[in-house]
Design a protein that fits this description.
The strands form two sheets. An eight-stranded mixed beta sheet has the order 1-2-4-3-5-6-7-8, sandwiched between helices. Strand 3, helix 1 and strand 4 form a beta-alpha-beta unit. Helix content is about 35%, strand content about 25%. The chain has about 240 residues and is α/β, with parallel strands linked by helices.
Length: about 240
C-alpha cells in the first residue's frame, strides 16, 4: 500500500447534530471521479483504528471516509462509556438509519467522489451499521462489508430487495454473533434477494481485526491470520463491486 496523499477532518450534520468525519484521498486520484468508501466505527466511536482504515482504503485508490455516529467529540474510553454511547442506537434503529444516511450524503458530495459508486465497511457495531445501510438501499451504495459485525435485523417494516452486494467477515467463535445468528442473517439476506457472501473463520472470536483487542474474558481477541484473510477478501470484493 502507498501513503494517502491528503487526509483531514470535516464537519457534516444530521439535523442539528454536528458530526465529524475523517477523509483520506488516494495518492493518484486521476481526472475521473473515484468510488468513496465509508468506514463505520466500533462502539467507542470514531477512533485511530477507523481513521487508519480510511487511509487503507485511500491506498487502494478509493476515497476513504470514517463516519461519525455519536457526534463531534463524543467518544468512549472504557466498556461502560462505550456501551452507554452505543445502546441508544441499538434500540432506535430508525434514528441510526437516518444518522448513517447523513454520512452517505456527505460522502457522495466529497470532491472527486463518484456518487454512483459508494461502499461501506464497518467493524463490530460498525459492521451492523454497514449492513443497515445495505438494508436501507442507501443512494449510490454498491458494496457493504461487515467485519465481526452484529447481525440483529432492524425490524423497520417490510424489507425491500437489497441492491448492494454484501460481504460479512466473521469469527465462527464470536460470542456476540453465534452461528445460529449467522444462519438467521444469511436467511434474512436470501429473503431480501441480496447478492451476499459470508466468510467464517475458524478459531476466531470477536474484534479479530483489531490489534488492541485483548479481552479474552469477553471474547474480544485479535487474530492476525484471520485479519489478513479478511482484509484481502475485502480488497477483492470492493474491486469487484466498485
Amino acid at each position: 500500500m502507498t501513503t494517502a496523499y491528503a487526509s483531514s477532518s470535516f464537519s457534516y450534520a444530521d439535523g442539528s447534530t454536528e458530526l465529524e468525519a475523517f477523509v483520506a484521498y488516494p495518492s493518484s486520484p486521476g481526472a475521473s471521479p473515484v468510488p468513496v468508501v465509508l468506514v463505520a466505527h466500533a462502539w467507542a466511536g470514531q477512533d485511530a483504528f477507523a481513521r487508519a482504515q480510511a487511509e487503507r482504503l485511500a491506498s487502494l485508490g478509493y476515497i476513504g471516509m470514517a463516519l461519525d455516529v455519536y457526534g463531534k467529540g463524543r467518544r468512549g474510553s472504557n466498556n461502560d462509556e462505550n456501551s452507554a454511547l452505543m445502546t441508544p442506537w441499538m434500540k432506535d434503529r430508525a434514528a441510526l438509519r437516518t444518522r448513517l444516511l447523513a454520512a452517505v450524503t456527505a460522502a457522495r458530495a466529497l470532491n472527486g467522489a463518484d456518487p454512483t459508486r459508494v461502499g461501506v465497511i464497518g467493524f463490530c457495531f460498525g459492521g451492523l451499521c454497514a449492513l443497515d445501510l445495505a438494508r436501507a438501499n442507501a443512494p449510490g451504495l454498491k458494496a457493504a462489508v461487515a467485519f465481526h459485525g452484529l447481525f440483529f435485523p432492524p425490524h423497520l417494516g417490510e424489507q425491500a430487495p437489497i441492491e448492494a452486494r454484501i460481504l460479512a467477515l466473521h469469527g465462527y467463535d464470536d460470542p456476540l454473533a453465534k452461528p445460529e445468528l449467522m444462519v438467521s442473517f444469511m436467511n434474512e439476506l436470501t429473503a431480501a434477494q441480496a447478492d451476499w457472501q459470508v466468510h467464517a473463520y475458524g478459531g476466531t472470536r470477536h474484534a479479530f481485526t483489531n490489534p488492541e483487542a485483548n479481552d479474552a474474558g469477553n471474547g474480544l481477541v485479535f487474530r492476525q491470520q484471520s485479519a489478513s484473510r479478511a482484509f484481502q477478501a475485502m480488497e477483492n470484493f470492493l474491486r469487484e463491486a466498485l
